[in-house]
Amino acid sequence: MMKWLLVFATAVSLYAADPKAGVLSAMETWKQAVLKKDAAALDRLLHADLLYSHSDGRTETKADILKALPDMQSLTFGENSVRVYGNTALVKGTMDIVLKANLATTLKLSVLQVWLKGPKGWQLVARHSNRLP
Length: 133
Prior knowledge:
This protein has four helices and six strands; from the N terminus they run H-H-H-E-E-H-E-E-E-E. The protein is α+β, with helices and mostly antiparallel strands. Mean pLDDT is 89; it is low at 10-15. Helices cover 35% and strands 45% of the residues. The chain has a six-stranded mixed beta sheet with strand order 2-1-6-5-4-3. It has a single domain (2-131), classed as Nuclear Transport Factor 2, Chain: A, CATH 3.10.450.
């Protein structure tokens, strides 16, 4: 039993030491919070200085996002490239979003996200997206 506990503790510490894994975990938590419209979880994941640019040109703040949570049916990440520079991470990849209001439309996006690691863990501080053909 003690051996398995040691293996588990080692695995947890290695995961915590890998900043890319931490960022990807924060992205997955963000995805689940958006799909569940969990404002409390989003409040923890979104940085106070958030700039969230949509593919239609609108830019929103954290307060804007929390006031009008998106109504998504599904959100799928494509392949992502994660680059970590100290407490800052850039994530570039694709994302497919199906909105509940229009299940026939899938938004295919190219997205750049900027995550900052601070006392609250990894938080999204900037996002910019473009529609793909």
